[in-house]
Amino acid sequence: MTPSNNTLSKLLEMPLDQLMARALKTKLRHRKDQFSLCTIMNVKSGNCTEDCSFCAQSAHHSTNATIYPIQSVNEVLKQAEQAAQNGATRFSLVASGRGPSPAEVETYALRIQAIRERIGISVCASLGIMDSKSLLMLKQAGLSRYHHNLESSPDYFSQVCTTHTIFERIETIKAAKRIGIETCVGGIIGLGEDMRQRLNLALTLQKLSVNSVPINILVPLPGTRLANALPPSIHEILRTIAIFRLLLPRQAIRIAGGRETLKDLQGLLFMAGADAMLIGGYLTVRGRPVHEDLQMVERIKGIWQQCSS
Ligand code: SF4
After folding, report:
1. Contact 42 CB / ligand 1 (< 6 Å)
2. Atom of ligand 1 nearest to the CA of 96
3. In terms of residue numbers, what domain contains 126?
4. How far from 286 is each of 68, 149, 227, 244, 305, CA to CA, in Å?
């Protein structure tokens, strides 16, 4: 049920401590102490035709991002195996570009099949705009979940990207759902949007009934259109996470890129309702050592248990 305007306004005005307490309670009620870990691999990098404002891989920007074609089966298997050894339960193939050609879809299908047969870890993919026929080919190869961020609110997306629309992204998500692939869809905090637009993104995801919601925190990268953007404050980030949890009580709220910018405060994200994260680094930015992340997860689960008892 869509919350009333009055409820939404109250969420925006609620003091942060109350908002976080409600979000954590909601997380524990609906999802107990579940904490899910996934790892992504940049399977094809750079030279993208699209102009997403934050992205180092866009050909519209001058960055040092590496450019390479689709990685070999052996390389994909090596990284999937490492992810499984690190404790990740999902491994995602992420490619730059507007969307794959028919030949590329076949190439990805072979890699997905190899991971399923040889490593067994659940496979996700993030390959851009796709139709249901191509997605079905990936599903038959063993794909369980498709990742495709909306990045921002529908009324702000045109400020983020001008080479495609948010509706093309939404169509891809609907196509995945129609053929029974789970969906992982979220966005980035700090693209210049305001709190109401973040809330609007959460409501859009609620309507789409996605399974997992990755939230990135902008890391302004030299050479991109947002190189000089001011990163969002910890206060804004925690409010956003808590609001997403309250509006999406049953979904995994997954902290993706940018959490390292919070340094020793990043554990607070998981006291505000988040309960999943990427480990092992990002597309063009390194993450912190996996053993430190795993230690943090154990400590957080310990606190969650205390809060539940
Ligand atoms: S986010 Fe994806 S579609 Fe947008 S520029 Fe980067 S690689 Fe291309």
Report:
1. no
2. 7
3. 11-308
4. 18, 20, 18, 26, 31
Q: Which atom of ligand 1 is nearest to the CA of 60?
A: 5
* CA 50–ligand 1 middle distance (angstroms): 6
Q: Does some domain include residue 27? A: yes
Reported as a single tens digit per residue, the pLDDT across 218-232 is 999 999 999 999 989
Please indicate, yes or no, if residue 41 is contained in any of the structural domains. Answer: yes
User: Does a structural domain hold residue 4?
Assistant: no
**What are the tokens at 263?**
């340094």
Q: What are 14's two structure tokens?
A: 């609620």
Q: Which pairing describes strands 187-189 and 182-184: parallel, antiparallel, or unpaired?
A: unpaired
Our count of domains for the chain comes to: 1
pLDDT digits (tens, 9 = 90+) for 258-287: 888 888 899 999 999 999 999 886 555 566
Q: For ligand 1, atom 6, which residue shows the shortest CA distance?
A: 55
Query: What CATH number is given to the structural domain containing 208?
Result: 3.20.20.70
The reply to whether 262 falls in a domain is yes
